[in-house]
Model the fold of this input.
Amino acid sequence: SFIMNMYLFVYDLMQFCGHSWIFTNMIIRFMTFGKDSLADTFHSIGLVMRLCQLLSVLEILHILIGIDKSCLLPRFLQITERIIVLFVVINSQEEVQGKYVVCVLFFLWNLLDVVRYTYNMLARMGIYYLPLTWLNFSLCIPLYPLSVLAKGFAICVSLPYFESFGTYSIKLPFPFTF
Done:
């Protein structure tokens, strides 16, 4: 139990460091370069974002093997939708990577995750700081719907590029073309 708790603490710490780096980098870049920083958000932080999201797949495993007592379905849906949007929609279309919606989406994801992983780390040590607990459970109320809207908008923005470039498409032979 102690070893598993320590492992989860280290996992939360790694995720906290990654998401904090992304979040801080985004804010500093925006304060330094202004609106110009929004267009190349993916190019400046995309690698760390992809690593953090891939690492989050372990959360499903943590729940399945029973070392984390969170509910599986909500966490599975959150991680799956993030992986699909990040890797299938944004990463596969270079034209989408420069859109402002990517910056907004990354900002929302990382704001939620910095608070969540901070709360998780402290909770694993038995520390429940009331303002952080309130923020962890309240921040998701406005930010999750905004995140869903941003994901939907990112998908809508990417659709013309998928259609024009034929990404993930297969050309069918003559009798089946319609």
Remarks:
- The two ends are 59 Å apart (CA to CA).
- The longest helix spans residues 2-33.
- The CA atoms of residues 112 and 140 lie 7 Å apart.
- The mean pLDDT is 93.
